[in-house]
Structure formats: C-alpha cells, structure tokens
Design brief:
The protein is mainly α. Helices cover 83% and strands 0% of the residues.
C-alpha cells in the first residue's frame, strides 16, 4: 500500500506559518513518501522481471520479501513522524488555550478584587461581584479582554 500526504494534511500545514522544526518534519515526511514510492517501483520492476524475463538463480520471492520489509519500516517511520507532528500541534494548541484562559482569569480576578476594595459592606460586595460577573460575560467586554493586556483591560473596565 503506497501512502503519501493527503490533501487534509497539506491543508492543515498551510494554516499557519511553519516553524523550522515543522518544516523539517514535513520535509522528512515527503522524503519518506518518496522512499515508499521507490520501494513500490522496485517491487513492480521485480515482479515484471520475474514474470516476463526471469533470470536463472534469482530468488524473486526473497527479493520481494526484503523490499517489503524495508517498505513496511518506511511506512512505520512515516506514521511515527506524522503522529509526532500532530501531537506537537495539539500540545501547542493546548498551551495557547491555557494562556488565553489565564489571561481572562487574571482580568476577572483583578476586577473582583477591585469590586471588593471599593465596597463598604458585604451587601455592596455581593452586588458589585454580581455586576462584574455579568459584565465580563458580555461579548463586547469579552472582546476587549481578549484584545488587551490584562492591566489595560482592567483599567478600561474600572473606568466604566
């Protein structure tokens, strides 16, 4: 079975600029795909020779077995590279998501701390906390938080 990079793999690769490590991994995958194609060409040539013009004393079964083993190892290595690359991308996406979550949390905690500081009693704290929680869920405020550094977002929200 001959495998190469499918359209979905190349589309995902073009979404964001590739790092040097990703470029190297993509190059290795292309090389392994080409090596698999060469294996298949050799196997086909061996089959053609065995059927159309067999050479005396040549063990075509042994030749095919050696090529098949080499092809299998090439395909396993190709799978390993592809899976490793996917795992790295998932880990990077997870880190980025965690960073965004931390950013939102910092702003929300600062807003709650500010509400607590300016409140005179527990009732006012409760009222202001409820107001802050409702406000930070608004789409325009969520957009402001996402687009600004935490300290800038807190200052802008406190002025409001």
């Amino acid at each position: 079975m001959l495998r190469s990079m499918d359209k979905a793999q190349t589309d995902r690769m073009s979404e964001a600029p590739a790092t040097p490590q990703e470029e190297r991994a993509a190059r290795h995958l292309r090389m392994l795909a080409r090596a698999a194609e060469i294996h298949m060409e050799i196997m086909e040539a061996t089959r053609t020779e065995a059927v159309e013009a067999p050479q005396p004393g040549v063990d075509y079964g042994q030749r095919i077995a050696v090529i098949t083993k080499s092809l299998r190892l090439t395909l396993l290595l190709e799978d390993k590279f592809a899976n490793h690359r996917d795992e790295r991308r998932k880990a990077a996406a997870k880190r980025e998501s965690a960073q965004e979550d931390w950013h939102d949390l910092r702003v929300k905690l600062a807003m709650l701390a500010a509400a607590y500081e300016v409140s005179e009693d527990d009732e006012e704290v409760d009222r202001r906390v409820a107001e802050v929680c409702e406000r930070v869920e608004r789409p325009e405020v969520a957009e402001l938080i996402a687009a600004s550094r935490p300290e800038v977002a807190v200052a802008a929200l406190c002025r409001r």
